[in-house]
Amino acid sequence: MNRKRHLLLSVTAALLSGLLVYGVYMLQLRQVKFQETVNVVVPLRFVAAGERLAPDMLGEKQIAKASYTDDMAVSRDGLAGMEVVVPLGANEPLLRWKVDKFRLLPSQSQSTFGIPRDYVLSVSNGIRAGDKVMVYVSGEAAGSERLFPEAVTVASVKTAGNVEIDDADNSSLLSMASGDKEAMYASRRDANGMIDYINLNLTEAEWLKLDSLCKGGQSKLVIAYSPESLDVGSPPAEGSP
After folding, report:
1. What gap in Å lies between CA 94 and CA 44, rounded to an integer?
2. Shortest CA distance to 164 belongs to which of 120, 117, 130?
3. Is the entire prediction scored with pTM above 0.70?
4. Is residue 62 helix, strand or coil?
5. Neighbour tally for 221: CB within 10 Å
6. For a tag site, which of 94, 119, 127, 185 has the least CB within 10 Å?
7. Per-residue pLDDT, 231
8. Backbone angles phi and psi of 134, in degrees to 5
9. Is 106 left (phi over 0), alpha (psi -120 to 50) or beta?
């Protein structure tokens, strides 16, 4: 009887030892897997440019840590309501530069200024909301020159009836976001009106400079479409807002 009992205890001890070794092995394997992978946010379906993200459109996916980059979203917090700048493929890591909450609103250092009609000498009729434009000053007292070294963003362009200028069947903004230059060009040919009012996102210093030059009526603005408007579908340069 004692022999059988001793044998049973030995078998039980061996089984417990095996289970303990297996448990430690699985714990170590899980820890190694956790260290070598990272969870990133992914769209659960294809999301077209111009759509706004909803919570049920997003999920998570494990990827190798070696494939992770700093611009990949690792949390869904704050992503709901974001507008998609370029199309997102299903289950691809969501890069933060591909979404923006308020694309046409000014940055923290800017405000949106409506440019008075009597300040403007000419404005390119192909300009649309979201475009980049170059601003020049022209006057009799001083020679013509570029007013700002960098292109500025157009917040909106409207008709005299306060209607946003666009092609109702083929939005220029959505075409721009999709990187579809042909559709973008076509939408500018079939606009719903002429530009009467233009709003630009400017810093305070830029507005004060513009206003001081134009308020006396001696100088006026020439607002020209910039090819920078077509720079879509690629991440912004390092250090840019």
Report:
1. 11
2. 130
3. no
4. strand
5. 23
6. 185
7. 63
8. -100, 140
9. beta
Residue 122 has pLDDT above 70, yes or no: yes
Q: Is the model's pLDDT at 198 over the cut of 90?
A: yes
Q: Which two tokens stand for residue 146?
A: 């570029």
From the centroid of its chain, how far is CA 187? 22
- Chain CA centroid to CA 170, Å: 21
Residue type, position 152, single letter? V
CA 35/CA 30 separation, integer angstroms: 9
* 143 contact partners, CB below 8 Å, separation of at least 6: none
Classified as helix, coil or strand, 140 is coil
- 20: which residues sit within 8 A by CB, 6+ positions away? none
Higher pLDDT, 109 or 167: 109
Cα distance from N-terminal residue to C-terminal residue, the chain: 82
| Bridge pairing between strands 110-114 and 197-203 | antiparallel
Q: What's the whole-number mean pLDDT along residues 145-155?
A: 91
Asked if 101 and 120 count as a contact pair (C-beta separation under 8 A), the reply is: no
The answer to whether residues 220 and 119 touch, using CB atoms and an 8 Å cutoff, is: yes
